[in-house]
Amino acid sequence: MALLTKIMFTVLALMPATFAALQPGPPFIRLDKNDAMVIVADLQEGLYHVVRARLLTEPGLIRLTTTQVRDFDPVVYRNSMIAHSAIAKLFDIPIVLTTSAETGPNGLLPKEISSMYPSAPLIRRNGEVDAWDNEEFRNAVRAQNKTQVILGGITTDVCTEFLALSMRAEGYTVFANTEASGTFSERLANDANRRMEDAGVILQGMFAIVMDLMRDWRNTPGSQQVLPWLDTYLPAYGYVARAHEAAVLNGTLLPGEEGL
């Protein structure tokens, strides 16, 4: 009897912890392609590429870079800028483009982006640092009638952060594409990302954004559309699909492979 009583007290003692573990956690905010839009904020050639150069030293490496964006490899970042813009075309969702002082040092949007959307709203700001301070931009965004925003811009700590915080204050759900925003240093990027996250901005990379918009490989867009897109903009995954294709069409098992 004493043993039974001890067991019962132990079970009762554990019950509150068990129930507490089953309490609902924070909601999983999902991207919805029917309620989402893309914003390209100042992904401009001048902001990407400045006239002066800087030597970066790494263990065993000296590398010359001429990009304003210094928290990413410049080749990788260029691809990410274009990939961010191409998300809207892949999922047939609205996009709004904006530039800052494009007739000055900031320069134009890369032609790979502007030619992709010749009819999309392009708001050329001539003074406002925060795009949300521009009435034409606000009207263009509101006209899309979406509540979710996928955002990327240069620099992370100004063009992305300021706009993300302004839109959060307006009630939008903002997904900051962390691969499509860049700045002068990792420290500045970390500071900006921390401030945005504290305000409820969702930080997410390109692959996660695309996967959440797709939801299921059997959807449309699904594997037939998304795999070629990934092959173009995320070769690390595209080559997974290529390797599978090669294995199916040409592959034979080597001794020892079967059963692995």
Task: Please describe what this structure looks like.
There is one protein chain. Helix 6 (156-169) packs parallel to helix 7. Strands 5-4-1-6-7-8 form a six-stranded parallel beta sheet, with helices on both faces. Strands 2-3 form a two-stranded antiparallel ribbon. It is globular and about 65 Å long. By secondary structure, the chain is an alpha/beta fold. The protein has helices at residues 2-21, 45-48, 74-91, 111-114, 135-143, 156-169, 186-198, 206-214, 223-233, 235-250; strands at residues 36-41, 49-58, 61-67, 95-100, 122-125, 148-153, 173-177, 202-204.
Helix/strand layout:
Blueprint: H1 2-21, E1 36-41, H2 45-48, E2 49-58, E3 61-67, H3 74-91, E4 95-100, H4 111-114, E5 122-125, H5 135-143, E6 148-153, H6 156-169, E7 173-177, H7 186-198, E8 202-204, H8 206-214, H9 223-233, H10 235-250
Helix pairs in contact: 3-8, 3-9, 6-7, 9-10
